[in-house]
Specification:
GO terms for molecular function: transferase activity, transferring alkyl or aryl (other than methyl) groups. By secondary structure, this protein is mostly helical. It has 2 domains: 1-159, Tetracycline Repressor, domain 2; 174-310, no CATH class. 70% of the residues lie in helices and 0% in strands. It contains 14 helices and no strands. Helix 3 packs antiparallel against helix 5 (86-107) and helix 10 packs antiparallel against helix 12. The longest helix has 33 residues, at 36-68.
């Protein structure tokens, strides 16, 4: 007997909602994380994106059901397995998407537009663009960029061009790593994604390396140009003693952690374990610790009283 609520949860893929935490980036880096009204706005934006992403995942599963049955992991998805009918899944996709758009409309007109753009792009992706090599990576990456700037729009925050460069680089790094891992299991599972037949492992290796380098370098540029000034008296005192002891770009201390995180994730990619970035992020201890340390450092630097926003 089919457990319908459980199957609905499975097809909604709540594990993938971790990607939507990107909406909180603007809240954190704009210095407004502890402003209650802003925080509530972003939480509702997060809910909206969780609904729309689930709606697009369901549509994608409907379109991919035939190929998913050939995949060693995806064949257990409800539609591919046959535990949910296509008409019912389509109804759930429509319900999730419309609910998301309703919430988005209540939050902010531009946020509504971004959610709508995300939805349209994902629908077109599911209908055919996912079959085009390179284009599929760009579309996957665009989803992360839209999330970050949707979070900025809903609280009317400004994000610098350096942060945009960082977001784009990381998004392309994650997307190319996902395709690299999928390609590695292709000989065992058959053709489960048409675009994969147009990729060579050497090409995806170069993408991963290129975007991995771009990720830590763009973060470094962001920390150099956008770090808030130090305010603790001890550092101001040291700056008076010698220019060599001037500390005014505090976020740069996070660069080694970012480099380690990228190196760790690249090692997982070449071990063919990165097909699901959100799962790796939540299960790999070293990567989880690196992300946790990075977040703690960023929050402490921005909100711990050792620097100030100007």
């Amino acid at each position: 007997m089919v457990n319908l609520p459980l199957e609905i949860v499975k097809i909604a893929r709540p594990l993938h909602w971790v990607k939507n935490l990107a909406l909180f980036a603007a809240l954190i880096f704009s210095g407004t994380f502890f402003i209650k009204s802003y925080f509530i706005q972003v939480v509702w934006a997060f809910v909206s994106f969780c609904l729309v992403t689930s709606g697009t995942y369901i549509l994608n599963d409907i379109m991919d059901a035939k190929h998913d049955r050939l995949h060693p992991i995806k064949r257990y998805r409800p539609i591919a397995k046959g535990t949910l009918s296509v008409p019912f899944a389509l109804l759930m996709s429509l319900l999730f998407s419309l609910s998301s758009l309703y919430i988005a409309r209540l939050l902010h007109p531009l946020f509504f537009l971004l959610v709508l753009v995300y939805l349209v792009v994902q629908v077109v992706y599911s209908l055919g663009l996912k079959r085009l090599a390179t284009i599929d990576i760009l579309i996957i990456a665009s989803g992360f960029v839209i999330r970050v700037y949707a979070g900025a729009v809903v609280i009317n925050a400004h994000l610098s061009v350096w942060f945009l460069l960082c977001v784009i680089s990381v998004a392309l790094f994650l997307a190319s790593g996902k395709r690299r891992a999928e390609l590695s299991i292709l000989p065992e599972s058959g053709t489960t994604r048409e675009s994969l037949t147009h990729y060579k492992s050497e090409l995806l290796n170069s993408y991963v390396t290129m975007f991995g380098n771009a990720s830590w370098m763009s973060w470094s540029l962001f920390t150099f140009f956008e770090s808030p000034p130090a305010t603790l008296p001890i550092w101001l005192f040291l700056a008076e003693i010698s220019k060599a002891t001037t500390v005014n770009k505090l976020l740069m201390v996070t660069i080694p952690v970012v480099i380690f995180g990228i190196m760790r994730y690249e090692s997982l990619i070449f071990e063919d374990r990165s097909e699901s970035p959100e799962k790796i992020l939540l299960t790999d201890v070293a990567l989880l610790v690196a992300v946790g340390v990075w977040i703690a450092m960023v929050v402490f630097i921005l909100y711990g009283g050792i620097s100030s926003f100007v």
